[in-house]
Each structure stands twice: as structure tokens, then as C-alpha cells.
């Protein structure tokens, strides 16, 4: 590969030899330039292909040849290609990627890579430093006026964008990062500096898109939570030394008044900034109380309650636990209450469902029971909860909301029954066929069959 030094080739070789068996998590990478580099996508990079470290090195060759050009590297902690459609189209006219999209459209040369191996992006800075003689600069205060440009030596400007926190939702963090990218890009252009930009992330975001989940449903009887690379354990409520409630979700978010996104996944499972002290447990009732302080601007406090009961049902002669209702309390005053359908399991089991929320497409629906509930939309992906009989701090076998007879199985059974009926009818008709008992002899008199026979 022309333009790459021995150290860069050694890094790529080590990455290829030592990391072949790891799961290929991927993130998007956006490349554009205002000067010389012209991005030439490889025709082999078809849809669904994950760009490896070697392929990324080839695609970055225009930055190094014939000489390294000025380069700006925007690093975000988490980003997925689905974020560009999910956050741009799901919340009205609020487009958090407005600056990035406008820059890509106006740039004389750009390249969008939907899927790049995370191992390549994590080592990207080391690879760039080993591949060219750069004047490395790190922008901490986001003030481009202090940047000194040396005409004889290209600069590599590294900017780490802010991640979501308990005070800043994912949507707000992405929108703020988009403003930073737009402002820095315009400031450099106003100074007459020609440069290239790489915008990527370290790891993919955890948000599961509703459309993706709907197309990938499958039966999971007695299933436990699947491994998907998430590092956080389920949220647990303990009484003394015993765990009495377990709760898990890959995506836990609310939308207030069709406009304000409240992303609660990070605060609930990663930073654990949620207050669960009001949760209660007993043999017959359990309440999981999740309290958040200032989850977004304009809301000072938010509490979400999951109310569960454990009862003996004579028909099955066993105890079942049910999630009876979900309540959302805003600023300790406004109460939104939802009745819950489908969410129940034997008391010894946990309950699992791919989609739980207020949408009619969700497998387990939250049904508004008062007027305030209409103002909220709830989205929970890969929901799992257990409120009774928790052993060793782990989920028991899961009763899934997708029944044994899924629509696909019903279609297969109905088709098989129709084909079996056709086969049976055909065999019956064949068995009813009879042959003639008399035959006409052409050399003898004509055969006469009385009508009475």
C-alpha cells in the first residue's frame, strides 16, 4: 500500500493476526474534504459489508499521498448508522445531524462508510500517527482561534465529542456535537485552511430500533437474556442480602408531548444514577420505583413505577406474577397511568419481551388509563423483569410474550393442512376409479349393454 510506513503496516498485520475471532461490532465513519483528497470507494464494499482495518487503511490513502494533508478527527463515544434515521425522522422537525448533512452535501469530496469494524476505529489515532508526520493537536476548549497552523507541517486535530450523561440525553448530546462539528468546520474554512475530516465513534450505540426488532422476532420459550456485547448487568433491588426485583432493557426511553426525548438507558443501567430506594417487595406485591433527577431540561423529577402482584390461580393450581400497571409521575404531581396486557408468568419465572411500549405494534402494550397518559410514549426494547423468587441475583427462565404458535407457524400449519387435504382427496378419487367389465370385439357382433345394467 503506497504511502503507508512500515510501522503502519505492522499495526495492521498485528490487528489481523491477533483479533480475527472477536465479534465484528461496527460503527459508521463519515469522511469529507475541502481540498485535495478525493475519496474513491471500493466497489467491493457492498451493502452490509463491514470495513476492516486493512480496507480502511486503503480508503484513507488519499490523506497520505503524495504528502499528508491537514486532518480533523472527530471522535464520539457511541454512534450507529441507525441514529441518523432514528433521531432525524422520529421526532418531528428536530434534526440533530443538520450540520453534518449540510457539510456532506456541499463538500467537493465525501465518503460515507455505514459499517467499520470497531477494532479499526479504536486504533485509528495510533494508525494515523504512525502513517504520517503530523503536528498533533488536541482541542479541549473547542476554541479554534488558538489553533496555530504551520504551512510546512500538516496538523492532526483530534476532538473528542461529549457523550450522553444523566443530565444530557442522547438526542441532546448528538445535537450539541453536530453544532461543534459545524462550528469548527466553518471556522477552519474561514481561515482558508484546506483539510479533511473523519467523523466516527469508538463503539456502536445501544439503542435498538423498533423497526429492526419487529423484523427479527423469533420464539424464545424459557429463554434467558441473549448476549449482545452489552457490559451492564440488570438493575437489582435488594432487601437485606436478598435480591427481590431484577429489571433489564437494552433501550429504555420516553417521549413527552411528541417532542421531548428522555433517554433513560444510560442513567438506569450504566451510571446507575437512578434512585430505587422507594421500591418495595413482599410475597404478594412488588413495586419497582425508578426516580430520576432532572432527566432533561424542563423536568425536575421523574418517577416510573412498575406494580406487580403474585397470586394463586385455581385453574392452574400455581402462583403467577403479573405486571398490573405502569405509572409515570412528573415533578411529583402529574400522574400518567397505564394498564398492562400480556405481561405475566409463573411466579418462579421471569418475563421477557422484545418490545414493550405504548405503540400498537408492540408485543406487550401499555394501555393509557387516564388523560395524562396520552401525553407520553414509552419505548422499551428487550424488556425483562422478575419481581418474585429471585435466586442468586440472576434471572430465572423467561416466559416470553411471543407465544408458541407464532404467525409463521400458523401459516405453515394451514398450508400443510390444505396440501394434505388435496393429497387425500386425490388418493380418494384414484381409489374410486373402476375398469370396464366388458370389452367390444371388433371381429364379432357389436357389444350391446342394456340400460338396466
UniProtKB/TrEMBL annotation:
<comment type="similarity">
    <text>Belongs to the vacuolar ATPase subunit S1 family.</text>
</comment>
<dbReference type="GO" id="GO:0033176">
    <property type="term" value="C:proton-transporting V-type ATPase complex"/>
</dbReference>
<feature type="signal peptide">
    <location>
        <begin position="1"/>
        <end position="24"/>
    </location>
</feature>
<feature type="domain" description="V-type proton ATPase subunit S1/VOA1 transmembrane">
    <location>
        <begin position="403"/>
        <end position="441"/>
    </location>
</feature>
<dbReference type="GO" id="GO:0012505">
    <property type="term" value="C:endomembrane system"/>
</dbReference>
<dbReference type="InterPro" id="IPR046755">
    <property type="entry name" value="VAS1_LD"/>
</dbReference>
<keyword id="KW-1133">Transmembrane helix</keyword>
<keyword id="KW-0812">Transmembrane</keyword>
<feature type="domain" description="V-type proton ATPase subunit S1 luminal">
    <location>
        <begin position="242"/>
        <end position="388"/>
    </location>
</feature>
<keyword id="KW-0732">Signal</keyword>
<dbReference type="GO" id="GO:0098588">
    <property type="term" value="C:bounding membrane of organelle"/>
</dbReference>
<keyword id="KW-0472">Membrane</keyword>
<dbReference type="InterPro" id="IPR046756">
    <property type="entry name" value="VAS1/VOA1_TM"/>
</dbReference>
<feature type="transmembrane region" description="Helical">
    <location>
        <begin position="408"/>
        <end position="428"/>
    </location>
</feature>
<protein>
    <submittedName>
        <fullName>ATPase H+ transporting accessory protein 1</fullName>
    </submittedName>
</protein>
<dbReference type="GO" id="GO:0030641">
    <property type="term" value="P:regulation of cellular pH"/>
</dbReference>
<dbReference type="Pfam" id="PF20520">
    <property type="entry name" value="Ac45-VOA1_TM"/>
</dbReference>
<dbReference type="GO" id="GO:0030659">
    <property type="term" value="C:cytoplasmic vesicle membrane"/>
</dbReference>
<dbReference type="GO" id="GO:0001671">
    <property type="term" value="F:ATPase activator activity"/>
</dbReference>
<dbReference type="Pfam" id="PF05827">
    <property type="entry name" value="VAS1_LD"/>
</dbReference>
<dbReference type="InterPro" id="IPR008388">
    <property type="entry name" value="Ac45_acc_su"/>
</dbReference>
